[in-house]
User: Fold these one by one.
Assistant:
Number 1:
Amino acid sequence: MDDKSSSKKKKDTQSYWEAIVSNRDTANSLLSDGTTGQNLFEKMATLNINYRINEERYHRCSRCWYCSTRCVCDSMPDRIDKDELLAANVKILLLMHHKEYLNAGNSAKSLIALLPPEYLTLYVYGREGDFDRCIDEMMINQGRHTAILWPGESAISVEEFISSTKSSDQKMMESERKDNDGAFIDKKKQDTEEGDDDEETTNAIIRIVALDGTYKNAKNMYKTIRQRLGGKGTQKDDMPSCIALHPKSVSKFHRAQKNYGTAIHDNLKANNKLDERALRVSTAEACALLLTELGAAESVQEKIIKALLVNNCNRV
């Protein structure tokens, strides 16, 4: 790097401590202006995200999030082809805590790198506007085709969720037909002008919200989702279903091998309503298992696991 580009980098970036001091000043200024709660959290988190992006753009790989000298992209499996996902009519809404964003040790980054863009949207929890956009997409079709990967008290299996979704769609279509008949609406004309609602409902995309973060942060994200939807006047029954996965093998993710066991044990002692079997895997592994259960080719899960192992090896 020449002197000119080096001086430009120094001018464009702050030191870590400069950023800390600047953020404290900003936080105090926002508090004095009456900014609190979620709004304050998002403004401060967005500042931190922008700092990391600006600081690391010179030496971080944008795909694997490692520094350029340790980039693992050449060892990563090929991108997942759409043909491998055709049987799984699903889209993952990846709600990633801002502390995970650009973290080289994160598992969910492999989903971003491998899945076709139409099968995944990244929302960074804390980045201004992202949470609102995630909620809006969750509640398409009143949230009937949306589920949250969360092993809570009322969590159901993937099979149960698909069954309940089909039943709900059937009831909705029957109700619409009765309303149309009662109002003497020309159904054929309506379908021509507005599209066939029955076909649209039947082929609706299943949206799965994957909460990516430590257990504590994921729990807070789930809590905020419930508070936000409740704040919009929805009833408990309007909250998207929670689904839990039960993997047959323990996690291969490096964090799981070091920390998850202790964290899970502590959380289960504090809350016996959680399902221990559903807490053993990383976000990437959970989504890989989910896609397989929804009909994706086995090669999808194999590629995601391979990417996870490549990431593990680079941390040694």
Number 2:
Amino acid sequence: MGSIAGGRASKRPELPWKVRLTITAFEIFSDGSFRRNGTLNRFLINLIDLKVSPKTANGVTSSDTTVDPSRNLCFRRFVPSAAETGGKLPVVVYFHGGGFLLLSPSSQLFDDLCKPPRRRNPSCRRLRQLPPRAGTSLSGTVRRRNRRPQIHGRNPPDNADLSRCFIARDSAGGDIAHHLTAGFGERNFRNLKIEGVIARHPYFGGEQRTDSENRLEGVPIVSKKRTDWCWKAFLPEGSDRAHPAANVCGPKSRDISGLKFAKIIVFMGGFDPLRDWQKRYCEGMQRNGKEVKMVDYPNAIHCFYAFPELPESTLFIRELKDFIFSQ
């Protein structure tokens, strides 16, 4: 089932000058940081990746927890105060995007998304943020059945309702979170329940070039050259984009027809070159008996939610709130 939001699509994305300037700077620095040998010039990319420290603001307290010091692996936790909420809250575990190797939980972009100003909808204040590669650590922690999940001695906050958990993911985080969600479906938990999966323009791919990849070449943020470089850097050596980490519903993917999956909502944009892969994902999940809702914004680009100036950003927040509190 799908829905179209945001009106008729234009021929080119209509973006304010400030948004275009920000995107252009990000593209220049990210392209310059991609080395031919598959490594990243982090000094260069960090020049535009603004970092913020955890703090308390607008009734929400954030804190950082180290998962693996040897890999500098950590997550940032956001906890609204009981005075602000007045009761138990759903828990959202958020896997951020960034092509598998850009950005971090301390990036201002994701900190703002998880702890937005009071003028934004409070539903996004409930995000627990983890870097994409934290999926294994989280899975290894919660697989101990019938116990409250802990991460290196950190219990969930008292106002967290573990029976109403959501897996949120955007872009490259969507691939990792898909496999984590499948892992949840193989196990039984007494106190932990996944109520829904939120996928914002997931970063799926494959060897075949789709119509949207060819037709939308040249739009902001996503290009074939960038996605190819990120996949080559991320996938196991010798693998191609048919690998199940990229093509999660392809011929090499695992059989998930018998696994329990919570309801999935997938947000897509008319100017996202990866939209055809996202549609194939929705169709593949539906063929496997999973409930999927597609929300398509005709004028949205990849990462549209990062720019409050764009009307789709407000539409997304409303749709997200309705999805979380309808489960």
